[in-house]
UniProtKB/TrEMBL annotation:
The keyword Transcription regulation applies. This is Helix-turn-helix protein. Keywords: Activator, Cytoplasm, DNA-binding, Transcription, Transcription regulation. InterPro entries: AraC_XylS_family_regulators, Homeodomain-like_sf, HTH-like, HTH_AraC, HTH_AraC-typ_CS, RmlC-like_jellyroll. It comes from the Bacteria. GO terms for molecular function: DNA-binding transcription factor activity; sequence-specific DNA binding. SMART domains: HTH_ARAC (SM00342). Gene3D superfamilies: Homeodomain-like (1.10.10.60), Jelly Rolls (2.60.120.10). The keyword Iron-sulfur does not apply. PANTHER family: HTH-TYPE TRANSCRIPTIONAL ACTIVATOR RHAS (PTHR46796:SF13), HTH-TYPE TRANSCRIPTIONAL ACTIVATOR RHAS-RELATED (PTHR46796). Residues 154-250 form the HTH araC/xylS-type domain.
């Protein structure tokens, strides 16, 4: 299990586009090294194990590691990384594939920009980004096998939570995930433990609770905002999932 980390940066967070003739044969590292591939293609070798490099492949090397790497000069690597000190931060194996490329990019850019402000707050923000990046890599190492379709299903679930009052259909959700209705439903249940329809109802009830307790909207207004044309039906669903009536929570 990944524990709360105490981190100390030993180098500035940095992006570098490897030169066409670049290759890397590291001496045994004196500290930890975060190493994330943002673009390009190549190969990484550590302790006799090989890993193809492409966007999303990230590693946390520990002191004593001596990685080697090469790349395709026509598809040059763009790498983000930094040296740091901590205890117990390196997963085993050292690398994993972070599927959320958007979050990876945001954390890397934020870390770089924050550190270069050269103030205490910027350094702290860079350390927090590093901690989150390590957590992402740890998750990628210890929950392997997630596919692009799993990420697509996650995205649909996020959209349901963001806009539960919309008139969603399972056919539309499946289309967004580029899956058949049956495939989408199976994957959704496997990931969230309930069907898309039940997940949507729960998202609506969660939002209803927030609106009733925080917005001042009436029960009728809340039901209508979340797509319910039958207020008694809304009230029954609300009580089934919360144990209270909407009026009690308002």
């Amino acid at each position: 299990m990944l524990q709360r980390l105490e981190l100390e940066l030993r180098s500035a967070p940095t992006f570098w586009r490897c030169e066409p003739s670049w290759s890397w044969t590291s001496r045994p590292l004196a500290d930890h090294l975060l190493w994330c591939v943002m673009d390009g293609r190549g190969e990484l070798v550590l302790n006799g194990e090989r890993q193809d490099l492409h966007p999303g492949i990230c590693a946390v090397f520990q002191p004593g590691d001596a990685p080697r790497a090469t790349h395709d000069p026509h598809r040059r690597l763009l790498v983000f990384g930094m040296h740091f000190q901590t205890t117990g931060a390196a997963p085993d194996p050292r690398w994993g594939e972070v599927m959320d490329r958007e979050l990876l990019g945001v954390l890397a850019r934020t870390s770089d920009a924050s550190y270069r402000r050269q103030d205490a707050l910027g350094r702290r923000q860079a350390e927090l980004c590093l901690e989150q990046l390590i957590a992402l890599i740890w998750d990628a190492v210890h929950t392997p096998g997630r596919r692009v379709t799993d990420t697509a299903v996650d995205e649909i679930a996020r959209q349901l939570r963001q806009d539960p009052g919309r008139d969603w259909t399972v056919a539309e959700m499946a289309s967004k995930a580029s899956l058949s209705r049956a495939q989408f439903t199976r994957r959704f249940v496997a990931q969230f433990g309930m069907s898309p329809a039940q997940y949507l109802i729960q998202a609506r009830i969660d939002r209803a609770h927030q609106l009733l307790t925080e917005s001042g909207m009436t029960v009728t207004e809340t039901a209508a905002a979340l797509g319910y044309t039958d207020v008694p039906y809304f009230s029954r669903q609300y009580k089934q999932r919360t144990g209270r009536t909407p009026s009690q929570d308002r």
